[in-house]
Recover the amino acids of this structure.
């Protein structure tokens, strides 16, 4: 996660350097793409984490019930 954050920061810095503050549309578009990617990562990470946790609990319960 830290590596991804650093790569995102480097990409944002590169975009800001290219725009030099003159092209607001590019900054807004890149911010929107970043926000969408962050939301996607958070939602899928939460959902998949919950599914994996439930599956592990079911497996542990099945192991306990087997003789």
């Amino acid at each position: 996660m830290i590596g991804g954050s650093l790569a995102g920061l480097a990409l944002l810095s590169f975009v800001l350097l290219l725009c030099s503050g003159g092209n607001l549309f590019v900054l807004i578009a890149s911010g929107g793409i970043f926000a969408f990617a962050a939301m996607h990562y958070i939602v899928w990470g939460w959902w998949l984490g919950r599914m994996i946790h439930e599956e592990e609990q079911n497996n542990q319960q099945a192991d306990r019930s087997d003789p």
